[in-house]
Amino acid sequence: MANGGVGEEVRNKQVLFRDYVTGFPKESDMYVTTGTINLRVPEGSNSVLVKNLYLSCDPVMRVRMARVTFSGFSSYTPGSPLTGLGVAKVLDSGHPDFKAGDLVWGVTGWEEYSLLSGIESLRKIQHTDAPLSYYTGLLGMPGMTAYAGFYEVCTPKSGEYVFISAASGAVGQLVGQFAKLLGCYVVGSAGSKEKVDLLKSKLGFDDAFNYKEEHDLDAALKRYFPEGIDIYFENVGGKTLDVVLLNMRVHGRIAVCGMISQYNLDETEGVKNLTCLIYKRIHMRGFTVRDYYHLYPKFLETVMPYIREGKVVYVEDRAEGLESAPAALVGLFSGRNVGKQVVVVARE
Q: Going by C-beta distance under 8 Å and a sequence separation of 6 or more, which residues neighbour residue 297?
């Protein structure tokens, strides 16, 4: 419980949101400043005071930088810190479920210390035999997204043909490994030679290609999937989705996880080949991870043994220090990151 009395007042470095964004986000849409914070939870409050250790850079944060009208998403407030998923250590607590010293993951502020009142998203970290930063990725929201999207939405079977776009990203790299563990044939697309090599050498994909080097994406997909695609895990949208529709097999499934190619456009691109959904009886379904968090215990039971046995590996791209956070977030949209983009605020 919170200790009475006045706590220590300390400096608190923060990344503040400047103003609503149109087009591609820029580093200048955020700025780093230093405020102060009291290291005690206010008397009578059920808030939790945390020291932030790792922050997650996620494409959905771009959605919140605009004036949001979608249900379930709220815009950032100009002049306030960005918020997102992170890993933190509890320093003081007025909430019965948390105590000083607990390690947690969930929604926190882009700052050194956060006083969190909305703690519905906070989860205590039980397994500390994996790197703590994994709770921004493999063991956090992206891991749950890959697990729910692949197993629940795609209803996969061994031997099926699986295509994943943005395949070296936080979610894609895991979907590919889950598919391989199930006995599927897996091909991924990514935006650089380094990422393609990573997919083939470290992440165990059967094949991969650099979409920037393919002048005819349709021909590329026919080369890698002469029999067609059973499952497409959609992370990018736009022209890729349009061409994939032509190459789906009858009764194929498309899990629509993200459309990063569309987030920065004033007007999103149209998709012309939707009639394929009819002729091929394709099941195409959008989802967000928030509908599947009830499966988190089952997810951990599945994934922790894979990690311990080395059957699932995870690639992170770490940016050091809060000052590096704006560049790390913006870099997602030019594909600068290799693997899951994490910002290291503090290590303990």
A: none
CB neighbour list of residue 248: distance below 8 Å, 6 or more residues apart: 228, 229, 230, 232, 254, 276, 280, 282
Per-residue tokens: 115:
């006083």
d(CA 148, CA 146): 6
* Fold (topology level) of 9-137+315-344: Quinone Oxidoreductase; Chain A, domain 1 (3.90.180)
Domain 9-137+315-344 and domain 141-290 have a common topology = no
CA distances from 100 to 28, 52, 91, 124, 316 (A): 36, 13, 5, 12, 28
Condensed to tens digits (0 to 9), the pLDDT of residues 39-94 reads 999 999 999 999 999 999 998 899 899 987 677 778 999 999 999 999 999 999 99
Tracing tokens 């990151």 back to the chain, one arrives at: 337
Query: Could you tell me which residues are beta bridge partners of residue 93?
Result: 48
Correct CATH for 141-290 of 3.30.230.10, 3.40.50.720, 3.40.50.300, 1.10.10.10: 3.40.50.720
What pTM value is reported for the model?
0.88
Q: Is the pLDDT of residue 1 over 80?
A: no
Q: What is residue 263's predicted lDDT score, i.e. its pLDDT? A: 75
Query: How many residues in the chain?
Result: 348
* Concatenated DSSP letters of 251-285: EEEEEE---TTTTT-SSPPP---TTHHHHTT-EEE
How far apart, in whole angstroms, are the C-alpha atoms of residue 82 and residue 279?
A: 45
Instruction: State the distance between the two ends of the chain, measured CA to CA, in whole angstroms.
Output: 21
Contacts of 157 (CB under 8 A, 6+ apart): 182
Structure tokens at 272: 């012309």
Q: In this predicted model, what pLDDT tens digit does every residue of 113-143 receive, in sequence order?
A: 999 998 888 999 988 889 999 999 999 999 9
Query: Tokens 């997102």 appear where?
Result: 84
What are the sequence ranges of the domains in the chain? 9-137+315-344, 141-290
Question: What is d(CA 338, CA 141) in angstroms, rounded to the nearest whole number?
Answer: 18
168-193 pLDDT, tens digit each: 988 999 999 999 999 999 999 999 99
